[in-house]
Amino acid sequence: MSGDTNRTSGVIPSIVRYFLTSHMSIVIALAALVLGVAAIMITPREEEPQIVVPMADVVVQVPGATAEEVEKLVTTPLERLLWQIDGVEYVYSISRKDMAAVTVRFFVGEDREDSLIKLHNTILKNVDLAPNIVSGWVVKPVEIDDVPIVALTLHADHGFEARYSDFDLRRMAEELFHRLAEVEDVSRISLHSGRSREVHVEIRPNRLAGFNVSPLEVFRALSGADRSLSAGSFVKRDIETQVVTQSFLLTADDAASLVVGVFDGKPVYLRDVADIHDGPEEPGDYSRIGFSDVYLAKINQEKADPSRPAVTISLAKKKGVNAVAVADAILKRVDELKAEVLPEGVAVTVTRNYGETAQGKVNELLSSLLFAIVIVVALLAFALGWREALVVALAVPISFSLALFVNYLFGYTINRVTLFALILSLGLVVDDPITNVDNIQRHIRMGLKNPLDATLDAVKEVLPPVIMSTLAIIISFTPLFFITGMMGPYMAPMAI
To answer: Sign of dihedral through CA atoms 191, 193, 196, 202?
Structure first.
C-alpha cells in the first residue's frame, strides 16, 4: 500500500488528480479554443511575412551633365560616402543624363527609423562636398508595404473602344484616385500610364523673329505668370482686405493672352508667336489591356479587340493591417463609385488582388491542417481505439489555438510561413498525448487499480521521458529564433 501511495503522490500526480476530479480542465479547454478563434479573426492575414529590410533611394538632380560626368562627379563619391554608414549591406546605383539614383539597403532586422536617420545625417553633414552642378536631391524610403495589394485597371468596355482614349481614362482615374484615398488603412496610391491634361505651347520661330521676341523671353513670361504671391493687405472701415497677385494659367485662353514682349509700342501676346493647344500631353509610354478567348467566352463575348488603352490605379496598405480586409474595403468602394464617377462603357478590371490570394492560401493551408488532424486521429482510432483518438483530437486544436494566440501576441500575421510552422509542429504536438494515452490505456486494462489511480500511476511513469522529449524539441527549435539575415523572419515563427 505504501508503494501505491508513493506512486500516486507528488506534485505532478496532484495536479493531474485535480484536473481529473474538477471541471477546470473543461474551462481551460474552452478558454483556449475561444482565444484561438479570436486570434484567427483579429490577426492580420497576408501572403508573406513582414520582413524589415530598411531601404532608401537617393535621387540626385544634376541638370546638364552627361551620364559619364554624373558617374564620376556624383555617383562614385556618393557610393563611397554611403558605404561608411553602419549597418549598410548593399549599395546600388544608376547614372544617367541629368540625374543619379543610388539605392541603399541595410541588413535585415536593422531598425528602420534609426537607419533612415543615419542616412539623412550622413548626407546633410557632407553637403559641402557636393559639386556645384548638383541642384538638389531627394531621399525616398522604400518598404515592403509599398508593394500594391490591389491594382485596378480602367479600360473601355466592349463596343466602346473608339469612344474613350487613354487621356479620357486618365482623367477618370484621377477622380477615382482621390475618392479611394479615403478608404481606411490605404497608404500609398499611384497612377500608371495614360496621358494627363496639359496646355501645349508650340513656338513659331518665324513669328518670334517678326516680333523681335526671343524664346527665353517667352519662357520667362510663362514661368513668372503661373504663380500667386501675397502683396500685403489694407484696412478700410475696420475691414482688412488681403492683396494678392493671382495669375495661375488655368486654360489655354489664359496662356494665349499672356504678354511676352513689346513691338512697336504694342504688346505681343503669346498667341501671336505660338500655337496653343489644351489637351493630352505627349505620350511617354503606352499601356494596354487584352483579354483571352477563355475570358471572353466566360463573359459571353464572342469577339473583341485584342487590346485597348488602359490606366491602372495601384493601392498599398498600411503596415500591420489585414490585407484581406483592406482589399475587400477597396473593392466595395469601387463598386459604389462606378455609378457616381464612371460613365457608360468604362469598365474596371481587378488585375491584382493580394487580399484574395492571401485569403485563398490561408484557407488552403487551414484545410490542409484540418486534413492532417483528421488523418492523425483516424490512424490513432485504428491503432488505439476511438476514445483514445478523441483525447488526441481534442489536444491538437487546443494546442494550436494557444499557439495562434501566442502568435498574435508576438505580432506575427497569419501567412503561409506561420501556418506551415503549425503543420510542421503537428507531429510534435501529438507525441506526448499518444504516449500518455497509450500508457493510461495499458494500466487501466491491467485491472490492478481503479481508473483514477491507474491514470495517475500511468502519467507519473512516463513523465520523465515526456518532459525530456519536450525539452529536447524546445532546445532543437530555439536556435531558429535567432537566425539573422533574410531567412530570420521565415524561421522565427517555427521557434515561436
So the answer is: positive
